Amino acid sequence: MPASAHSVAPLAASAPAKDRAATDRVGADRRDLLPRLQRLLSRGRVFTSPAQLAGYASDALGYKSYPPDAVVIPADAAELVEFMRGARDLGLPVMLRGAGTSLSGGPVAAQGGVIVHTSSLRHIREINRDGFWCEVESGVALNDLDAALKPLGMFYPPDPSSGPVCTLGGNVASNAGGAHCFRYGVTSHYVLGVEVVLLDGTVHRFGGPAGGRGRWREDWRRFMVGSEGTLGAFTRFWLRLLPLPEKVWTLRATYPDLRSIEAAIHALVAHPSFPAAIEMLDPRGVAMVEGSRMAAGLPRGSFMLLTEIDGPAALVDARVAAVSDILRRAGSDDVAFSDEEETRRRLWKARKAAGGLLGQLSPDFVVQDAVIPKGALAEILQLVYDEADAAGILAVNIFHAGDGNLHPNFVFNSRVPGELEKVERIGERLMRRVIAVGGTLSGEHGIGNDKAAYMPLVYGPDSMRLQWAVPAAFNPRHQLNPLKVFGERRFTG
Amino acid sequence: MKAIAPLTEERFFTVFLDAVDGTVCVPANTTGAALQARVAPHGLRFPLLLDPATSLSAHVAATTHAPASCRFGQYCDNILGMNWRLPGGRVVRIGERVAKTTTGYDWLRFLLHAGGRLGEPVDYVLRLRPACGFSLLAWFEGEAAALRGCVSRLLHGGWMHWWDAVDFVAEGDRRRVRVAVDCPPGEAPLFTEELQRVAAAAGARLTLQPATGGTLDGIPDLVLKTTPDRVIALAEALAQPAARCVGLGYSGVVHVYLREGGDRPDRIRAMVESHEQALYALGGDWHSRWLPAPAPASAEAAWLVTLEQALRTP
Predict the structure, then answer these.
(1) CA A299, A304, A309, A315: dihedral to nearest 10 degrees?
(2) B130, B152, B168: which is the final residue of a domain?
(3) pLDDT value of residue A27
(4) How is chain A split into domains, by residue range?
(5) Do B4 and A311 touch (CB under 8 A)?
(6) Would the pLDDT of A16 be above 70?
(7) Which of A334, A474, B75, B302 could link A231 by a cystine bridge, Cβ 3.0 to 4.6 Å?
(8) Domain-terminating residue out of B210, B244, B274
(9) CATH fold of A247-436, please?
(10) For A245-259, what is the mean pLDDT?
(11) pLDDT by residue (tens digit) across A317-356?
(12) Is residue A329 less than 8 Å (CB to CB) from chain B?
């Protein structure tokens, strides 16, 4: 079946949800958990009733549910430190959690235990315009930081689509990216320093405003970024800032086939206008948007490409004609572009709406996060279509084409016997091919427990030994966020 | 899901050039000149070079940043992967050949500037950038306040993203601000006009010249890392004992170049002792290829034992 011909099914009637998980819980005695936690935290900051815990049983991948034994919300960084000092004696796993928007099963209680919600650590402590840095607590929401920076003419570039709610702690833990990372880079490019509490209760500052090693001989900050909550609890960060671009042009084009949009992407990434973002929505995504109340007027069956150039007005105004020519020469007769705020919002509409519409198609979805060399784009997308079509699973592709960062969303119903297994089989075949063409499992979501099963595809015996040495140094019993990154990282109490 | 069998052999990078992705894999001992000769026919460049005759690994061993880090980030953001020889002699693949990854713990950035204590690079996978076709070097001269004004205007405006480098250069009594530009030929007048506006606004004199070799400063003897707003003062403070200081404005880095002499390590040590506490207080650091690395801090000794066990396992 050609990619563009796939029909979009309406939302299936669903049976009541049931917990999928928690077969792996640690066998510690939980009877006196509440009073033990209450001794570590101030009044009203420990939650153990099922109703209070329900919202913490999964992340944004709702099809897996792992109810924790308790949730704690430390009042401030000092209380988080106190909690971590006592956590080792709890005999239970400890998971740090920001907004819970992870798409990889990152901040869930896969072995039960205590979730530490960082929502009280939300202070922007300092913005230093002359030094191009800011100091923030780990629970600050990404868009709150940007709102504080904008009046100063500054910005913090990583921009995951969960920006209105996701926290910087989650961003640093998963090395988050976003639409504009093609030019600006991901979170690890912007973390100057990390303050972290280890399970032995020690507090360490790795780096700081200057972004060096500080008094340390080695650069331990590098292990902390992207460590997915497996090494320590983050309390604050020092982040690098940039001046806001003066002007932005947004360009949108549609293409009749995969080869022509691939040609457009290849031409854009090599162009001296250095686009900030190159995003793509496939025909199944277009059909999903156009069949919804968020319809943006895109031709059915088309591939949509969205790109942005930003910079000084004189520069980007001089470049926009050349960029639109690239889009046309690659085979589009439908190129729209604007530098006007409202029109730009309309051009972005389909791309921004697509992620939220997946839930209208079916109760569950799995999103992969593979990154591939861009020369393999058409091949890998065709593999996604072929595998999904053969299994009768809808696959919608909405992704960061400039980075080669694919996000095939496999839409399914976990209550239909066998559907999840089909999706998992597709995922394994896809990941094997991704690795074979020189790609990697995750570009910005992290491994969590959702992709941990694929890690043996990546690391040979020596490099796997190095990988395991990192948690062995900081969290040898795997009490922090067990079963994540590597499925064998199991806390045994 | 059925468990996937672990790999029984290491995967390695092989030498390649991917013109679509803008990546190349080359031996780590490749010189800057050889690298540029390899990638230039594809309209690409690796902008973080300091000395065309020196190997890439010597660049990385000496410093974390180059002048073009202002626009493109540090070495560790532009070296995507590597084949790495462990202290025991075995080679492992570290990192990826794609620009984005959050697959596993970040050994790449940890090892890259570890000063040879934890092994050495065999091959690098590098991220390349389009070579835009026109290069220019701008020199601003004037009073101290004028030069500070130039740097502030160059870094805080919307053009900041498009300067390859904004450097404060102190050499003897001479102080200058250097800006490197790489742009399409048709855009050169726009860049030139902006540079002229900056000079006029700050009250500085501007000289434009072809960029050939312009930011190839050589491999520094001492590198200090501070915040961007302290770069000029630090470069000024070190300018007298040094032969030349180059402050990389946005990166917060000062590259120090000394006259040769048997007492060079002692001179470096004296400079470090004057400034290290102030650097550490900001989470900064220093590094010199002429001095041994400091001893590990007490807390990191135990972590290092664990890592070194893994690194040295035969």
Answers:
(1) -50
(2) B130
(3) 59
(4) 20-117, 124-243, 247-436
(5) no
(6) no
(7) A474
(8) B210
(9) Vanillyl-alcohol Oxidase; Chain A, domain 3 (3.40.462)
(10) 97
(11) 999 999 999 999 999 999 999 999 999 999 999 999 998 8
(12) no
Mutation site, A249, A462, A465, interface B, largest B CB count within 10 A:
A462
The CA-based angle A490-B3-B4, given to 5 degrees, is 115
Position A32 scores a pLDDT of 86
The phi and psi torsions of B238 (rounded to 5 degrees) equal -95, -10
Q: How many CB pairs under 8 A join A and B?
A: 285
- The arithmetic mean of pLDDT across residues A384-394, rounded, is 96
Q: Which CATH number fits domain A20-117: 3.40.50.10420, 3.50.50.60, 3.40.50.80, 3.30.43.10?
A: 3.30.43.10
Query: Are B5 and B109 contacting, i.e. CB atoms less than 8 angstroms apart?
Result: no
List Cβ neighbours of A223 (8 Å cut-off, separation of 6 or more).
A231, A470, A474, B105, B106, B110
User: Which CATH topology does A124-243 take?
Assistant: 3.30.465
Could you tell me if residue B115 is inside a domain?
yes
* Contact call for residues A278 and A307 (beta carbons, < 8 A): yes
pLDDT in tens, B272-314: 999 999 999 999 999 999 999 889 999 999 999 999 999 988 7
CB B121 within 8 A of CB B82: yes
User: Which SS3 state, helix, strand or coil, does residue B218 take?
Assistant: coil
Shortest Cα distance, chain B CAs vs residue A370, angstroms: 9
Nearest-5° Cα angle at A183, A283 to A144: 90
Q: Is the CB of residue B15 less than 8 Å from the CB of residue B26?
A: yes
State residue B256 phi and psi, 5-degree precision: -110, 130
Is the per-residue pLDDT at A70 higher than 90? Answer: yes
The verdict on A271 touching B (C-beta cutoff 8 Å) is yes
A423 with A412: CB under 8 angstroms? yes
- Cβ proximity of A338 and A249 under 8 Å: yes
Minimum-distance CB partner of A375 among B18, B297, B299: B18
Interface of A with B in 156-185 (CB under 8 A): 174-175, 177, 181, 185
Q: Residue A28 — pLDDT band, cuts 50, 70, 90? A: low
The string of pLDDT tens digits covering residues B166-192 is 999 999 899 999 999 999 999 999 999
Could you give the residue ranges of the DSSP H alpha helices within A330-418? 341-361, 377-391
Note whether ipTM > 0.95 here: yes
Nearest to A36 by CA among A28, A117, A78: A28
Cα A491 to Cα A415: distance, rounded to the nearest angstrom:
30
- Give whole-number Cα distances, A268 to A308, B24, B122, B249, in Å: 10, 19, 32, 30
Burial tier of A285 (Cβ tally within 10 Å: 0-12, 13-18, 19+) = buried
Cβ neighbours of residue A199 under 8 Å, at least 6 residues apart? A84, A87, A88, A94, A232, A474, A475, A479, A480
Q: Give the residue from A401, A424, A192 showing the smallest Cα distance to A303.
A: A401
Instruction: Check whether residue B184 and residue B139 sit in a common domain.
Output: yes
